[in-house]
Amino acid sequence: MHIHILGICGTFMGGVAQLARAAGHRVTGCDANVYPPMSDQLVAAGIDLIEGFDPAQTALKPDLYVIGNAISRGNPLLEKILNDQLPYTSGPQWLGETLLRSHHVLAVAGTHGKTTTSSLLTWILQACGKNPGFLIGGVPANFGHSARLTDSRYFVIEADEYDTCFFDKRSKFVHYRPKTAVLNNLEYDHADIFPDLHAIETQFHHLVRTMAQNARVVVNGQCEALGRVLDRGLYSECVYFNDQRGWHLEGKELFYKDKSFGELKLALPGHHNLLNASAAVAAATHIGIEPQDAIESLKTFQGVKRRMEVKGEVNGVTVIDDFAHHPTAIYETIAALRSKMGDSGKIIAVLEPRSNTMKMGTMKDRLPGSLKEADQVVCYADPKLGWDAEQALAPLGEKLHVLHSIDETAVVASRLAAPGDSILVMSNGGFGGIHWKILGLLKKGA
């Protein structure tokens, strides 16, 4: 089958493209901006790319168009597909119906920690000889890519609650029909598509409703919102983590109820990552992996790109990149870095409020609290930001610096740092390559 993918360079759709190619399909695709690193991965996989959405692409005559959720009505190629009544579907639906149906799917859902927990779980399965396929919204360092298809019956997927496509406003994860599902946590997010937390809880309820009686739901027992989800109907086996009823931590020691299975030894700092690891262990046991073997494999987990990823060190100043963009994730990331550094240096937090929810200002009142443990806060306020960053972050006092250009933000961040300090850059986008700008300025002594 020849499939043509609209929006192919996004992390998820790029992963779908690579899986489709590995399954033997001919794959072509287009996007508004075709650029590395995703374009390099796709070309290396034998996928032809086209810049833009010219309706003339229908001359390729694929068997099916797969539409990414970044594609909206008014897109010229999409309108041509609709006008000509050409066959189309969404990425999640194609994935669920074509590839996942024959697999034991292990899906990781939640507001925070999806990418890290998916990566931890995938590595546990790999280290324990299961050779899983996977599709993750990041790049696990142990593998070097975000997706692969194998001959294993096991497939790990990051189960995103964001909407599926222009014609299907259900969450992506309702298409995956997992046999094992991790529900990490649940907070309000994605204000551009969900009016409130209850609406997201409904989507999680829909996910649970698709699961078989002999499936397993691994649930954070300390999350009230997930408790409400389960109260609306639970049809599968339920195993708790972060809870005395199931898997829980005492320090770094992992217990199931009253039985200890040993200490979690992770390269990743922070209590939240220990919780991610305990959830991954709980999920792995569902397919017969011994807890001790899962815990042992975690010792060789190398982390995930853009999750506390060190980009470089110059003159004793470390520049770190992280995807954190929700107030809870920002707080936990700073806390994790502080636990790793101790009192040996300052944390200069550099923030870009870039996500749709952040741009709308929905979370702005929570930002001062999430940033309070940083020693200095440098915020890049894009001129198009829909709220006053200086006013919203004013409770941070003298340690706040608000700039309106990326170059100025890099200059201020680099000048605030001294040997032994860490500059923590947080954004869910590329942030204009600010990491390299800061490292360059540090080399110059600016």
Automatic annotation (TrEMBL):
Domain Mur ligase N-terminal catalytic intervals: 2-100
Catalytic activity: UDP-N-acetyl-alpha-D-muramate + L-alanyl-gamma-D-glutamyl-meso-2,6-diaminopimelate + ATP = UDP-N-acetyl-alpha-D-muramoyl-L-alanyl-gamma-D-glutamyl-meso-2,6-diaminopimelate + ADP + phosphate + H(+)
Cited InterPro entries: Mpl, Mur-like_cat_sf, Mur_ligase_C, Mur_ligase_C_dom_sf, Mur_ligase_cen, Mur_ligase_N, MurCDEF_pg_biosynth
Pathway(s) the chain acts in: Cell wall biogenesis; peptidoglycan recycling
Record keywords: ATP-binding, Cell cycle, Cell division, Cell shape, Cell wall biogenesis/degradation, Ligase, Magnesium, Nucleotide-binding, Peptidoglycan synthesis
One Pfam family matching this protein: Mur_ligase_C
Domain Mur ligase central: 108-284
UniProt EC number: 6.3.2.45
Cited function: Reutilizes the intact tripeptide L-alanyl-gamma-D-glutamyl-meso-diaminopimelate by linking it to UDP-N-acetylmuramate.
Protein name per the record: UDP-N-acetylmuramate--L-alanyl-gamma-D-glutamyl-meso-2,6-diaminoheptandioate ligase
Organism: Parasutterella secunda
Gene coding for it: mpl
